[in-house]
Write a structure and sequence with these properties.
With 210 residues, this protein is of the alpha/beta class. It folds into two domains: 97 residues, Rossmann fold (3-Layer(aba) Sandwich); 60 residues. It is built from eight helices and seven strands; from the N terminus they run E-H-E-H-E-E-H-E-E-E-H-H-H-H-H. The strands form two sheets. A five-stranded parallel sheet has the order 3-2-1-4-5, with helices on both faces. The chain has a two-stranded antiparallel ribbon with strand order 6-7. It is elongated.
Length: 210
C-alpha cells in the first residue's frame, strides 16, 4: 500500500539521528532546512557531520534514554540488528522512525525532495524504487523556476493588503491568480509599483461588479 504524504512542521522539533557516517549526513542535510533541533549519537562521528553547525553531538553508543522528548528518530548505524532494536523501541513509544535501507522497520519514509523557498514537493515510490523517485524529482525540479521561492514570498507578502483592499473572496482569488501568472511569466516577482497597480485594477473591477 502506498504511503500517505503528510507534511509535518519540524521547526524546533527534537530529532535524533543514530549514526555518524555520511549516510546519516545525507539525512541531516535533508532535514536542516526545515528547522529541527537535531541530536546525533554515535561512537564515531565523521568530520562532515562535525562541520555542521547547530547539531548536538553525543559521542557514544545509543541508549534508550536518548529517545525521551524526541519527535522523530533516524536509525543509520550501519548495524541491521541495532537499527531494528531502535525501530522497535520507537514503535513502543509511538515515535516516528526511519531506518536506513530497511523499509519494513520504517514508520515513515524520506521522499526525494524538491524545495524552493516555501514550496516542498516530495516524491515517494513507497520504497519500491528510489531510482524512480529520483527520476521524477529531477523532472519536476527542471519545471520549477529558480526564483519560485521569491514568487511565493511575494504572494504571501501582499496577502494582508489584498484582504484590506478587496472585500470579496472571488475578487481576492482573481487577484492572486493574476499576480501568480504575472510573476511566473516574468520568472520572478513583480516590483512594488506593478503589484500595487494590479491590485488597484482589481479593486476597480470589484467596485464595478466585474
Amino acid at each position: 500500500m502506498a504511503y500517505f504524504p503528510f507534511f509535518v512542521e519540524l521547526d524546533r522539533q527534537e530529532g535524533l539521528i543514530v549514526g555518524g557516517s555520511t549516510v546519516a549526513l545525507r539525512k541531516i542535510e535533508k532535514l536542516l532546512p526545515y528547522g529541527p533541533r537535531l541530536t546525533v549519537c554515535a561512537p564515531d562521528i565523521c568530520g562532515e557531520i562535525r562541520a555542521v553547525s547547530g547539531l548536538r553531538l553525543v559521542e557514544r553508543a545509543f541508549s534508550p534514554e536518548l529517545l525521551e522528548g524526541k519527535a522523530f528518530v533516524i536509525a543509520a548505524t550501519g548495524d541491521r540488528q541495532a537499527n531494528r532494536r531502535i525501530s522497535q523501541l520507537c514503535r513502543e513509544e509511538r515515535i516516528p522512525v526511519n531506518v536506513v535501507d530497511d523499509r519494513d522497520c520504517c514508520s515513515f519514509l524520506f521522499p526525494a525532495l524538491v524545495k524552493r523557498g516555501g514550496l516542498s514537493i516530495g516524491v515517494s515510490t513507497g520504497g519500491a524504487s528510489p531510482t524512480g523517485a529520483i527520476y521524477w524529482k529531477k523532472r519536476i525540479d527542471d519545471m520549477i523556476p529558480e526564483r519560485f521561492g521569491d514568487i511565493l514570498a511575494h504572494l504571501d507578502g501582499v496577502r494582508d493588503a489584498a484582504k484590506e483592499t478587496l472585500h470579496g473572496e472571488a475578487a481576492r482569488s482573481g487577484f492572486f491568480a493574476a499576480l501568480f501568472a504575472a510573476d511566473m511569466e516574468r520568472g520572478g516577482p513583480l516590483d512594488r509599483e506593478e503589484t500595487q497597480a494590479l491590485l488597484e485594477r482589481r479593486r476597480r473591477e470589484e467596485e464595478n461588479g466585474g
